[in-house]
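Why does residue order matter? Because the sequence determines the fold. Keep that principle in mind as you read this record.
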Amino acid sequence: MLAAGAAATGAGLGLAAAPARAASRPVTAAREAAGAWEPGTYLVGRGIADATGEVAEVGLMGYGRTDQQAEGLHTRLRARAFVVAEPDTDPGVDRRVALVVVDAPMIFDSVRQAVLHRLGQRYGDRYTARNVMITATHTHAGPGGYAHHLLYNLTTLGFHRATFDAVTDGIVEAVVRAHDDLAASRLTLSHGELHDASVNRSRTAFERNPADITDHFPSAIDPQTTLMRIEREGRLVGAVNWFATHCTSMSGDNRLVSADNKGFAAYHWEREVAGADYLDAAPPPFVAAFAQTNAGDMSPNLDLRPPTTPEDFGRTRENGMRQYAAAAGQLAGDGAAMAGGVDARLVYVDLSDVTVAPEFTGDGRTHRTSKPAVGAAMAAGSTEDGPAFPGFAEGANPFWDAVSHSVIYTASPELRAAQAPKAVFAPVGEMNRVYPWVQETVPVQLLRIGPLYLIGVPGEVTVGAGLRLRRTVASAVGAELRDVLVAGYANAYFHYVTTPEEYDAQQYEGGSTLFGRWQLPALQQVVAGLAEAMRAGRPVAPGTPPPDLSGRTLSFQPPIVLDAPQLGRGFGDVLSEPAAEYGRGERAVAVFAGAHPGNVLHRGGTYLWVERREDGGWRRVADDGDWSTAFRWEREGLAASRVTVTWDVPGDAVPGSYRIRYRGDAKALLGGVRPVTGSTRPFTVRA
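Structure:
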């Protein structure tokens, strides 16, 4: 019945058969049946690149706070790419997918369009919207300003070209490196459970769900942690983990760019365990990505209180270590060797205008989505992770309830049918008529790697909504439920997805479900059509992609005009030297006369080095991508910059002589930008 319903309703959503590509599924199925597929064997490539944007005087994104302006860097943000292709593919048929996981608050359509354009210039139709999935970890400590829709640039004084370029450059570079790294590899899929790294921050909404959801998640969390590991000649060379929890371990009071808990988990496995050197031009020995799933109502703050800073650094590390331990712990088990086809489907859906068939609505009636509207509960923010604007609350908002029901819904009964009981704070769909505030036509994607299916949704999906999407696809393709995952924060951004029952509670997540109460059923209908087409080996017509808005961006950020050192000082001078010696576990601090870090972002490089004296020279032991360091910037007067570098001496630091070096770039009033450097005097680390 599901497959029939999907076929019947798919034509209006761009899911009709299209002659664009040869069908891959029948060929793949024949090869599997003939035993021509060695279990676990694929062509796999791995790539990693720096995707860090501006680290000073740019709004950090996620909490919606105008006061959270970046003042430095704790850990760099990275894009990790994995290309998976079928081995020995038939001539003329290229079966591959590319999965990218980026330490970023969101992936916007602006970034996706630019990345696909550049990949197309380089590789033709090998990497397209259909088979490239770009996902964000959703760190709330990453720079914003890289969207083409106005709502997401309000806290950053508009569009920031430098950050946009850093994010897109990093993603493209990671995919290129993964493409160049393609080699015969063995894939293994395993599953486990993790119960102490997430909590449901919207329990009152979750408990409105029927028993088929609440019984499936008795603790109101999705504890499944899934690992796809990559091996070559018996050696582990990569891993992708999926687990649902928000990257809100770093607080809204933090001012340093950070990859948050998932970024730390990846850093720990790559750098501290596998010994990767991010500044080395050679291919990394190991690449680990910690990707999101249906994390919409999952918080890492187990006490359901917003974290504070600087205590949030410890909480970030602790949560990241738990995700790492759960993933790495699966290596001890055999897992299942992955075999089967590599495939992808994608369709563009105007979510403001979807007719949802009765088999997906749950009440036996046909419903429609509507133009997007922001609820008052969205303006409140998530009180468990980071409140937003005062005067708004999760749940009832009497003033906006009255405005909606007596004015807005009276003027538009269609909006009431789709959006009630939401208290509408901002009718952004109508505002889109004047200027693009939010995206209405969005990509929805389905990727297959053997037994694993990834549902690419450009939003924040609650665990209940995710379960319904997963069940829809699993039923259509005949997969095990645990092997079907929601890949949240994928390819674009349209805020939240809740079940209709959760929506009625109008907590933060429901208020942020832009297209109304029937948004999830509309998405179920779409993914059912994609899944049925994939099972049958039938291509789909992708529909009309959203427009390119790159020519309509607004920017109000004042430019960097001039750098000047403090009076009587030169660039790179040490304003405050470290102490003469430190013990393990202590913090070394140095202060430099610096320059604005926005002049040159040092993507792929570093603003600082910690070096140890060794064999008559100096050897780098840490840089600004390491957890042990922090780079803090502050303006002094009109043009001077005070740069503070800290290094937490590791517990296993080799005793000896050390120094801290700084690298910046100063802008002259009438000239260009020139590099500046500084170095502290040596200091001792004792045993």
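The first strand starts at residue 41 and ends at 50.
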